[in-house]
Amino acid sequence: MRRNTPLITLLTGAALGVVLLVASMLADPSGKPASYSAAAAASTSPPATPAAPATSAPAAPSSPAPAAPSPTAVTTAPVKATYAGRVGGGGGSVAVSIHGSQAIAYVCNGSTVEAWFKGTAANGVLIMTGKNHSHFSAIYDFGKVTGDVLAHGTDYSFSVPVVTKPSGLYRATAVVRGATIKAGWIVLSDGTQVGSVEPFSTSPAPTAFGAPALDVATGTARDGNIVLHAVAVDGATGSGF
Fold first, then answer.
1. Which of 7, 43, 145, 199 is most deeply buried (CB count within 10 A of its CB)?
2. Does the global pTM surpass 0.85?
3. In whole angstroms, what is the distance from residue 212 CA to residue 196 CA?
4. pLDDT for res 113
5. What SS3 class is residue 116?
6. In 10 A of CB 146, how many CB atoms?
């Protein structure tokens, strides 16, 4: 029995070694050695595919704001009309006839101040000149003419409305003893008349005097033995231009 003791001891040690080996393997099922680490595993893993950069959807192009319509030129001023009324302060009257691009005007106080003007009408502006440094400038629209006139050293401002026949502007010429005389009348809407006669209009500085009453129905006026036949300076029809 004593001879078997070393053998039993040897077998017992071997069995103990097997038990320890099995226990070690159960503790690490992968069977990898203890020196194996997560860092080593990471080095053998395939590199991760980088995520694509986030891209925002392209902004839709903004539509341009619609352009404002360009203003259309509108001519409200009548191009064929006659205007008449009193000047500022009531010291006389003025009449203006416009026919297309032509314009004629007359200012008169019934005696010493009277002047005729002729010029152009364009884009609502009147520019006219007369004798002896007289001048006339105004603007006009649908219902009136507004401006300034200088005649015989007297300056008048005015704003006068459109008128219709028999109101308006009239003039007449006659030859007396070889000299030409010229008469002018302004007939206002209320029937009031103002006019003057410029005798010997060919002289450098003729002296005007009040004109006789004009019969608008017949277009005549009598100065003594002289009968003056007046013509309407009418923007609507173009007569007298």
1. 145
2. no
3. 8
4. 87
5. strand
6. 14
